Batch of 2 targets.
Target 1
Amino acid sequence: MTDRSFNQPLGGNAMPRFGGPATMMRLPAASSPAGLDACFVGVPFDIGTSNRSGARFGPRQIRAESCLLRPYNMATRAAPFDSLQVADIGDVAINTFNLLDSLKIIEAAYDVIAASGACPLTMGGDHTIVLPILRALAKKHGPIGIVHIDAHADINDDMFGERYAHGTPFRRAIEEGLIAPKRMVQIGLRGTGYTAEDFDWPRSHGVRVVAAEECWYKSLAPLMDEVRESFGRGPVYITFDIDGLDPSCAPGTGTPEVGGLTTVQGLEIIRGCRGMDVIGGDLVEVAPPYDASGNTSLLAANLLYEMLCVLPGVNYRA
Ligand code: MN
Ligand code: MN
């Protein structure tokens, strides 16, 4: 295989990194997922947020900060553009005046992606969007294993009486059979709540809940060894709420909680997914209006790149 067969990110010696169109990683833009092995896609949706909105600006800002990313992973030796055809297929045209209609629009967009065979890597958007994504992917793959990084379990039965919001998607997904709960882990949960049910409801359904306090001062590589072992074979989806990380690492988000995971632990979790049958991933809840330095979006771009680096079929240069 040669590099010429596959799309390559625009290099910094061909165009300054601060120039050119702001696609994810300066990859070519594509109008559809046809012919791609993986695609970056934005969902500029934040009408499911409960506190600070702004995640609608996430995809655009993540793309802008991603201009610094280079193609080769120095740490893991992954060279995803040696063996995967990847492009940025743009944003899903959600209806920002109608949440329920937007869920249908997102599901239909991911039906097309799933049918194409491309593995979607999504820039959110608030966490509501994972529900229609899983609805589409589960039609193809059946119940899906989930690696969920978050400060919150997102298993509320309702919020202000509404069943669809950014704090409810995993309740709905488990109820709808989209998830294999015994192949689901939630990492980084913490903070204040209303009742113990927030974390006990997923446990009662077989989900492994790893509270942030269990992660403090530790490498998470051993945890991920256990997760890979227990998940075995079968489809796995990575859903990364940036508020799983500590606000000192990722201040630009709508529902920050203190005492969170470190950037390094976030990298360890994703790198620990190597070897699993990863069928897609998302990075949600980046709210650029609260991200004065751009560091949150830069981190988000890096985490999405790391997801790309653990997809099946990635070439690792010895
Ligand atoms: Mn969340
Ligand atoms: Mn959260």
Note: The longest strand covers residues 179-189.
Target 2
Amino acid sequence: MSFRFYFHFGSMAASIVKRVSRVKKLNVSHISARYKLLTGFRHFSTSKQWNKALVLGVYENESTDSIDFTGTARKFDEKADGKISQLLLTVKKPLKCGKTRTLHAVDPEFSSVLVTCIGKRGEGYDELETVDKGRESIRAAVAKAVLQLRELGENEIEVDSCGDTEASAEGCHLALFSYDDLKAEKSRKPAVRISCATRYSQDKNSMEKEWRKGAILAEGQNLSRRLMEMPANLLTPTKFAEIVKEQLADKCEVLVRDKDWAESMKMGSFLSVARGSVEPPVFLEIEYKGRQSDSPLALVGKGVTFDTGGISIKPSQGMDAMRGDMGGAACVAGSLLSVSKLQLPVHVKAFIPLCENMPSGSATKPGDVVTAMNGKTIQVDNTDAEGRLILADALCYSEQFNPSLILDMATLTGAIDVALGAGAAGVFTNSENMWNKLQKASVRSGDRVWRMPLFNHYTKKITECQLADLNNIGGSRSGGACTAAAFLKEFVNNKNWLHLDIAGVMSNSGDVAYLGKGMSGRPTRTVIELINLMSKETKN
Ligand code: BES
Ligand code: ZN
Ligand code: ZN
């Protein structure tokens, strides 16, 4: 990724930087390093002094005279002649899940040893919570640990696998993410190198492999978060396409379609949203061919790089969050990054309609009628219900590739946030089988899903329309997420369709301990886990 993709005048900026630095006799490499940071690339200086730290896990234990260490932690305690357990036992209160103790000068190799409690031994799937509590506790515990060590100025951290290497890697890589590229150097979070404490493992190779898998899962979600967090003046549809191309081009085929192409495909519904903006729309088509097949998995993502609501304009308070209205598109890109880095034996095709939803003299007006790719006419009574309009054409187009599954993700409705909050993404599907698979994937990832209805009851609300085949709103606020899903259903024939309304999980305000505040990139890891699961079935 180069800074060029983040600024309208990228290459021009580079030459200006060079010219200015020549005049002022500045060091060009310093300036380009500063610009590299703006793009999100962190480079470790070789002259830097590394402060090594260690994270060790312990299980919750009522006893005041023994510590229930993880396998790795016990070995480190032995190496330190039992000093770690001695120090932990000097205070009466045993460590509770999610709590930490930081020890110094216990091991000459590490300036800090942070002990983090990963909950009760043997915890697993919780049916009511639909989550694997053991894995979630590990993610949260190591996340807290690495953040505390970063605060202490530690910049090289060895982390206990805590009995689940993948979850441990996910937890720390997700926790250390920050989007501070646009801030001055002194306000940015320092870079931290993390690795897995494998030295006492029986099988170092498989541990390293699992660590890498966890890190790649987190990397995918972190790409989604970065794209979602980026301000809409920098992340236009064109820029989104450039970044995705840069990130995926060596592993995927990336086709960047323009407005003329969308017109030739008769995507009148998509183009009706884009027409209010001076930013040209883009339709991205990406292919990852990890195996030969005639029926790919199709991913579709809503890519509204900013949603003002259009002529049905939104209230100004909190409107800045609508820079994340390309969350579906971001999660598709993030998922593809991980799937391709993991080289999963699967064939995936992704379809991403990108545009801005703006009010202007050329914008669609309430009551206008537009025609989608499949010939259905739509009365646009509310221009703020734009996500379904761009997805309608993308879903129709994806059907042309004989997909074995269509999975779309969209920050589609405020109503799903009212229904589920940040607890889970809302899932609408015509396939019990696919629902079961997705839920299974979400138990692994800890990023939950919850099934919602696709009743005809909701279809009636959008087919009762004065001027056209469909109305883009349901007429009342009731069941808003369900009427939106019912609208999308009109553009899908595939028997395996999953629609994920991710508006409620778009941002994190502290609910997920290992994510920090800001755009969440949810449910990227759930989708990767689903694709991983499906790659093990031969058909795809
Ligand atoms: N992008 C919004 C939905 C949204 C809301 C995403 C909150 C993230 C957080 C979507 O385009 C929208 O405005 N939907 C309307 C639909 C309504 C007009 C039928 C909504 O939910 O209010
Ligand atoms: Zn909207
Ligand atoms: Zn929207």
Note: The first strand starts at residue 52 and ends at 58.
